[in-house]
Specification:
The protein contains twelve helices and 14 strands. It has 363 residues and is an alpha/beta fold. The radius of gyration is 20 Å and the shape is globular. The chain binds 3-isopropylmalic acid and magnesium ion (MG).
Length: 363
């Protein structure tokens, strides 16, 4: 199959981790006879430096015309002093909005091989952790009205508005219920309905939707309680659906219980089927160019691309199994390294995973 991928390497460790995903995709293409065509475009700080804008129109056009977008990470200190509306992160938010990527899927899986890297006590995670955060990605406070104004006696004030429509809640709810139906049939909707009007609407719409999914057990949890429960008893969760901001926070928390932020992939999907795939972590400017970053979240994101956008489930399995094999053989990037394991760099991790893809496919 021919497949067009817009590639945004981005800033910081972005280029080095994306290069590893491309290596692995190259191996997949070779083994399974697919031809992946890449078009590299700029976004974030790299685009600000090159053309003065975080999200150039050309980038957006190429992304819109592609089957999928593979992205590393954007942002860094260098651009931290720019005004809010010009920061590299606006490229990410702009891509999400313009491509209509309202559903963000962030699976947090504790690989058996990495049980030792989980900071929780072993009895809390025995049997493994396998949960998915379904985060609403184009609404809520990250996209609401915002501004700055002068108060009479308390100086300057700033505000950001959280607003959700029934339609926005329903469409992310459908994604989450469908996913729960395919998994353990348990769905937790997370809100702050004891305080926020927008959360009360969220809860009402989720409850109404549950009527269409009699086979899925829906429960509601406040976000503060969820943050606590994720540490206390993470195994109670399967699919979690929540708003943009709560999902941002809870997915970082969920990633850590899987051993490292460097293991959490993500897929952002639109109704049209187009998807953007990126690790859930950021650009880690401190680690830039040191060959120490863990590329696995990005490689796993490429696997999600194969599965969700390209419909290539076997190929996605091959990539995931290759990562498991590399971990089982004791190879660890520095974020996961413990005594007795073999420390590897970013590039070597990519080489090893690509080699395993070729090997699994032959056996
Ligand atoms: C994420 C990131 C982004 C977000 C930032 C960089 C804008 O934290 O994808 O989780 O908040 O969505
Ligand atoms: Mg985040």
């Amino acid at each position: 199959m021919n497949y067009n991928i817009a590639v945004i390497k981005g800033d910081g460790i972005g280029p080095e981790i994306v290069d590893q995903a491309l290596k692995v995709l190259g191996a997949v293409g070779g083994v399974y006879g697919h031809s992946f065509k890449y078009e590299e475009v700029l976004a974030g700080g790299a685009a600000i430096d090159a053309v003065g804008k975080a999200l150039p129109a050309h980038t957006l056009d190429v992304c819109k015309a592609s089957d999928a977008v593979l992205l590393g990470a954007v942002g860094g200190w260098k651009w931290d002093d720019l005004p809010g509306g010009e920061r590299p992160e606006t490229a990410l938010l702009g891509l999400r909005r313009e491509l209509g990527l309202f559903a963000n899927i962030r699976p947090a899986m504790l690989f058996e091989e990495l049980a030792g890297a989980c900071p929780l006590r072993p009895e809390l995670t025995a049997g493994g952790i396998d949960l998915v955060v379904v985060r609403e990605l184009t609404g809520g406070i990250y996209f609401g009205e915002r501004g700055v104004k002068q108060t009479e006696d308390m100086g300057e004030a700033a505000y950001d508005m959280e607003m959700y429509s029934e339609g926005e809640v329903r469409r992310i709810g459908v994604v989450a219920f469908d996913m729960a139906r395919k998994r353990s049939k348990r769905l937790t909707s997370v809100d702050k309905a004891n305080v926020l009007e927008s959360s009360r609407l969220w809860r009402r719409v989720m409850t109404e939707l549950a009527g269409d999914y009699p086979d899925v057990e829906l429960s509601h949890l406040y976000v503060d309680n969820t943050a606590m429960q994720l540490i206390k008893n993470p195994r109670q969760f399967d699919v979690i659906v929540t708003s943009n901001m709560f999902g941002d926070i809870l997915s970082d928390e969920a990633s850590m219980i899987t051993g490292s932020l460097g293991m959490l992939p993500s897929a952002s999907l639109a109704a049209s089927g187009v998807g953007m795939y990126e690790p859930s972590h950021g650009s880690a400017p401190k680690m830039t160019g040191l060959d120490t970053a863990n590329p696995m979240a990005t490689v796993l994101s490429a696997a999600m691309m194969l599965r969700y956008s390209a419909g290539l489930a076997d190929e996605a399995d091959a990539v995931e199994n290759a990562i498991k094999a590399v971990l089982a053989e004791g190879y660890r990037t520095p974020d996961l390294f413990t005594e007795g394991k073999t420390k590897i760099g970013t590039s070597e991790a990519g080489d090893l995973i690509a080699a395993r893809v070729k090997k699994t496919a032959r056996t």
